[in-house]
């Protein structure tokens, strides 16, 4: 039996298990990580989570984050996960800012001190920003897809395709679309067998609430509709600006089903990147025993609960739900 210590963490209720590589056997393989992720993330028979953050402290950078979605697929990046992993690495190193190695880029994370709440907030870099369809990948005859109609998806909506670096397809929509089944139809089509997105794609629907505020609902590739997706909220912020609904270098509040974050989109010297600012909350520490050969999980033990953190986040979440209720007539989309 393999004993696995972990932390249950979340960014905007996008929840993960955080596992330190040092607590796994040195011989633990990529395939075993996939198997462990599917087993532990199962919300009915496992612990339940959107994915696992495998984190190492030290190395070429201050630390490494490798993320697997609940279906066992590896994600190139995750903004909500990076805030949680970054917090862990910051605490382990005692530094004010760290560089974290991810699958496709080395990204900075730092504690955010300007928040008006006691909740631990973290600022993370989301980059690079790529518009070439091949970067998603997406099959298209266009050099880039920005505010374009894609008739195979909808005769009414327009879409923007961007990788940051994981792939996103984004549409600015009306309240009626956001409350309809159209979201699920589109998202499931591009994440099933189709000739346009061979690897699937994250799909976000963005509703502008008022100046400086938007709501984003995201279908994550390999997960489904989630409370929040950090890179999706970042990419959606960029698309909001490209549509003339906000400005570069100005903070944007992004509401989601799990709370809210703040983003700042930068555009300097022909380069674009996004600062994603939000919580990196610890829920509880635990241990679990796993039989990898039989794919069985036993003896789940929760060893420490971060009750004060959770209470603080619930209060923040309530404020977000009040806003969503006032706009859509319901607390969750």
TrEMBL record:
UniProt keyword terms in alphabetical order: Amino-acid biosynthesis, Cytoplasm, Isomerase, Lysine biosynthesis
Keyword Cytoplasm: yes
GO biological process: lysine biosynthetic process via diaminopimelate
GO MF annotations in UniProt: diaminopimelate epimerase activity
Family the UniProt entry places it in: Belongs to the diaminopimelate epimerase family.
NCBIfam families, sorted: DapF (TIGR00652)
Protein name, per record: Diaminopimelate epimerase
Provenance organism: Perspicuibacillus lycopersici
Taxonomic path: Bacteria, Bacillati, Bacillota, Bacilli, Bacillales
